[in-house]
Amino acid sequence: MLRKFIGLMIIAPVILMGTTGCVAIAGGNPNGYGPNGFLVSLYKVGLSGSETNAPKGKKGSACAMKVLFFIIDPGGGVPAAARGAGISKIHSVDIEVFSVLNGLYAQSCTVITGE
What we know:
Elements: H1 2-20, E1 40-49, E2 58-67, E3 70-73, H2 78-85, E4 90-100, E5 105-114
Antiparallel strand pairs: 1-4, 2-3, 2-5, 4-5
């Protein structure tokens, strides 16, 4: 009986922290930055620039994707987003992340604006 109680006292906090996003099961945030939810994460992180001060121009994005914690498509980055939209002068860089089940499936898109 005592062994079951001690086992429960060790396992219960680990399960609670893992399922509430306090501790990421996959060794940190699966996307490397921003908040982390166990079931679903959807957020945008502004890295540089200011869309309010920039003139209206082009907008480009490039996405990287991973499934089952393995990177499937590493094509998301500033050069790929700029090249895809024909942007030569960058005003702002943002990252948009969508993650399911703590990174079991995750998509990270680099979104840039510029001329």
